[in-house]
Write a sequence for this structure.
């Protein structure tokens, strides 16, 4: 089968949770079908490297990268945000509406027989008119309107709150319409499926969970640093930036007070200045910036923290850490949608004092930590990508049947 695969960011290198899911599903699908990838790039210095594009080309039939129209300068972004006030589309959808990509879709459809289109995130449904008559599947990494609503609720500045309120109204309407236009829609958890059903979405919603590569991410047996606490996540993403600043300002001072020996490592791009400046003068705080491989940092950590307050979907960083057999402390939202149980394979706490207490308890109580680590690894094995690609195939078959095509 010939599949046209649309993505909002290049799946390789494995820079984020989004790229990890896209990569593993894409690669699994490409082992069975001929895949043409059209992808936007968000970090050109990494995603447009020849060796990374060559890697994708090693299993895709063709790879076509595109720049996001409003990226490139703060002026373009500002004008895009301002101009969106007069558009019925939410900004997140208008942002990805690219004439060059639209033309490439038309070119491919006119020259190749495409059997199915995989649309890998809600904003790319702006291209629905180009693919209306072809079996198509939409993959929802999050309930986008819920993620925006949680941002709106957390926002303190009045002018931003007003803009986000307008965006939420447009996005919620756009999301409902888009999900009804596809032949099958994929969500990453039963929680997300129920949320969309409650929003009035009547289309077929199949759960294909986020996953992890349990062969790549597995306990290494390296030397653990017993006082090391680890944050993982790119801090230029709003949900992560909110979380890391909340941790740094509300939790880290309490953690230092309760356990002065604690050592913090922040892995990911764009650490906030207040954290980066502290790292320059305090050996107990380390920032790494972008790293090619997070496993060495996971291997040495005693505890991984996921203090997420804004977002939807499920956190792949939790699954990767569980696959490495790590003890994790997460907020309720951070662990949302995953098969986790407080005190068994993870600790869950929301209030800063409770979050810190949970973290310290894992550092100090080796027996408790080791029990959670063993259970975390067992849980991760149920989320292996190889199992999940099989479910993705079922979503394709559902889309084909709805269009009256023979299934595979």
């Amino acid at each position: 089968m010939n599949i046209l695969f649309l993505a909002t960011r290049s799946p390789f290198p494995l820079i984020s949770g989004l790229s990890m899911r896209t990569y593993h599903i894409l690669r699994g699908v490409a082992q069975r079908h001929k895949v043409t990838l059209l992808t936007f790039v968000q970090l050109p210095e990494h995603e447009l490297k020849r060796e990374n594009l060559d890697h994708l080309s090693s299993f895709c039939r063709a790879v076509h990268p595109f720049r996001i129209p409003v990226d490139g300068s703060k002026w373009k972004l500002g004008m895009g945000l301002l101009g969106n006030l007069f558009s019925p589309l939410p900004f997140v959808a208008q942002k990805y509406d690219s004439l060059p990509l639209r033309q490439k879709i038309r070119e491919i459809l006119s020259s190749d027989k495409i059997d199915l289109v995989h649309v890998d995130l809600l904003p790319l449904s702006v291209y629905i008119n180009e693919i209306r008559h072809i079996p198509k599947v939409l993959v929802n990494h999050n309930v986008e309107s819920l993620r925006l609503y949680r941002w709106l609720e957390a926002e303190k500045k009045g002018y931003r709150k007003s803009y986000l309120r307008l965006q939420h109204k447009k996005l919620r309407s756009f999301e409902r319409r888009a999900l009804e236009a596809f032949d099958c829609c994929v969500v990453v958890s039963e929680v997300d499926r129920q949320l969309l059903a409650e929003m009035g979405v009547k289309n077929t919603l199949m759960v294909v969970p986020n996953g992890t590569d349990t062969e790549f991410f597995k306990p290494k047996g390296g030397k653990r640093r017993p006082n090391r606490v680890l944050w993982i996540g790119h801090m230029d993403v709003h949900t992560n930036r909110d979380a890391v600043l909340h941790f740094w300002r509300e939790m880290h001072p309490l953690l230092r007070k309760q356990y002065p020996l604690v050592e913090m490592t922040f892995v990911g791009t764009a650490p906030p200045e207040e954290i980066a400046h502290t790292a320059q003068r305090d050996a107990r705080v380390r920032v790494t910036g972008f790293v090619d491989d997070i496993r060495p940092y996971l291997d040495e950590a005693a505890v991984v923290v996921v203090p997420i307050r804004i977002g939807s979907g499920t956190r792949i960083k939790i699954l990767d850490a569980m696959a490495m057999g790590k003890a994790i402390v997460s907020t309720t939202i951070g662990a949302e949608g995953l098969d986790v149980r407080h005190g068994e394979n993870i600790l869950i706490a929301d209030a800063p004092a409770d979050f810190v207490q949970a973290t310290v308890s894992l550092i100090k109580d080796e027996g408790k930590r080791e029990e959670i680590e063993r259970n975390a690894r067992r849980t991760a094995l149920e989320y292996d990508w190889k199992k999940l690609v099989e479910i993705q195939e079922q979503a394709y078959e559902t889309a084909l049947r709805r269009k009256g095509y023979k299934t595979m």
About this structure: The radius of gyration is 21 Å. The chain has two domains: 2-211+385-402, 228-381. The chain has a mean pLDDT of 93. The CA atoms of residues 36 and 62 lie 5 Å apart.
